[in-house]
Amino acid sequence: MPGSTRTPTLADVAAAAGVSLSTASLAFSGNKPVSASTRERVLAAAGSLGYTGPNPLARNLRQGRSGVVGIAVGPLSTAFRDPAALPMLDAVSEVLEAAGMGLLLMGDSVEHARLPLDAVIYQICGQETWAAYDDLVARDVPLVVVEGPAWPGATFIDIDHRAGAAAVAHHLHDLGHRRVATLTLQESHPQREREAGLREVFPDAVTIGRCVSDLAATQEMVSAFLDGEPDVTAVVCQSDVQAAGVVLEARRRGIDVPGGLSVAGFDGIDTPWLDLDLTTVVQPFAEKGRATARAALARTNDEPADDVVLPVELRLGASTGPTVSR
């Protein structure tokens, strides 16, 4: 269609190649055998007309699919600041992209969940309920939950929080610590499991409080705790960001870490700005993301997707040492 400003269509290609519309469609899709000569003729006609191929979104919508998986990450500003969330999101997007799927980052809005999505991933929002859940179930949208509540009908992807926290506790116990405090995350499945693991070894651990993974918030809470000159020799945190905040506050007060106070975290994120390697529980961010994406793809294709619980590993750093009197 030289000189025309109209976008060429598949019907134009079929007419130029002298084949039916269905044959032209099959030549592009590859879903059924089309002779090599016919396919070459169709592609040559498409090239001469400037036609690049069927619109994948339109094709998916005709099949009742959008080609998009949504992932609810809570407040978007928080998600982008969380160093434990980003590598997992990278792995999810990598797997979905390889499968030709798009990824839509969503907040907690119910309206977002009502978009035409092939599946929804609920990722570490720290909530026990989600208003969109009932709507998703009603529309039969596959749901994959990451480290969250084990909702009926959803595939559950998790890590062994309890074993990791217990490993940290045993490490401190072996170093002679008996008077231990803990800083926890906000009420959630990971928070409960990590606290349960710690209390397998230290049932009487002092609770400093619940706090988001934020340096400033952590330092403020820990400052109030240390003002009381507590009789503890170690602080176990439920995230590495929290642990870094405890280290910074201890140093501000002239308390040596680990000489005067041992500090342990959870996650295994990089903290090069801290100039101190944290003792922490390393979780497999990339594998968790890949498992999540694979489950979403399987559910989208009406294939089985079993729940997954991934192992974690204790990594010893320079933030914990033998107990000392304070």
UniProtKB/TrEMBL annotation:
PANTHER family: LACI-RELATED TRANSCRIPTIONAL REPRESSOR, TRANSCRIPTIONAL REGULATORY PROTEIN
UniProt xrefs under SUPFAM superfamilies: lambda repressor-like DNA-binding domains, Periplasmic binding protein-like I
Pfam families given in the database record: LacI, Peripla_BP_3
Lineage: Bacteria, Bacillati, Actinomycetota, Actinomycetes, Propionibacteriales
Organism per entry: Nocardioides exalbidus
Sample GO molecular function, one term: DNA-binding transcription factor activity
Protein name: DNA-binding transcriptional regulator, LacI/PurR family
Assigned keywords, A-Z: DNA-binding, Transcription, Transcription regulation
Ranges of residues in domain HTH lacI-type: 8-63
